[in-house]
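Section 3.1: Structural characterization of target chains.
Under the original work plan, the team committed to producing a structural model for every single-chain target entering the pipeline before any wet-lab resources were allocated. The record below documents one such target. The sequence was received from the expression subgroup and is listed exactly as submitted; it comprises 297 residues.
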Amino acid sequence: MKTSKFICNKNNVRLDVFLTENTTLTRSYIKTLNDEGLIKVNGKTAKAGLKLKVGDSVLLTEKEQQKISTQPEDIPLDIVYEDDALLVINKQVGLVVHPCNTTKAHTLVNALMFHIKNLSQINGVLRPGIVHRLDKDTGGLMIVAKTDEAHKKLSLQLKDKTLNREYKALIKGRIKEDFVVEGYLGRNPKNRQQMALTNEANGKQSKTLFSVDKVFDHYTLLNCKLFTGRTHQIRAHLKSIGHPIVGDTLYGGADKIYTNGQLLFAYKISFVHPTTNKKLTFEIDLPTYFKDVLKKL
């Protein structure tokens, strides 16, 4: 176990925000440590949302890395780019990113463990290498970190919004002008499987820029640029304006034109390489199933 001590130097800052600002740990890992009682304020465990005061003492204990118990599986990977620090993959639709309560195997992590010798360990034993995620039914570009140092630097880029991710989405209905959706995003109290715009107490700030690519008779193809990366962000934002993604049954996008998942695809990603400090941009074509729907329209 490794314990670090911090003294708060400003008032009214959340505990979890203070630690992300003063360490290179990811917010999700900090939450895990906090849930396990490994973060204490003035000697006592505290909620992540506790507002600190100047002079408060924060003790953070990091766990020793455990040996990964998840089993490697020979699941094909579409690797777009790879070097000693990271790889960029094109995740296939239908593949869950990491094991969870409902999916304990046959995930992207199982595939990574089979094909990649070294993966970062910052996100714990069930999410080695995972810097950010895509929903099960969303395909496209993802970054995977091989080293802890690369993972930390990429996570900082996510935090300061210099790691840019762009998507294509086919939505129900016609929209002719670009627009932005922003607000606090949290669990929908009426349906806990959904996310929805809420208030500051129940959600986290979210923002997406939507620009019109092409307008059809009853549908619109959008470019979607994330400024934050909340769970189901694009899907919930589009639901909030009454234009759900085609095929997204959870958010009201069921449509006979496509029934094998939502038509949302992460086609572009750009970031600063954590070792070379060079700006890298990767962009891939829409998959065949997406293009086939556009041809029908």
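The chain has six helices and 16 strands.
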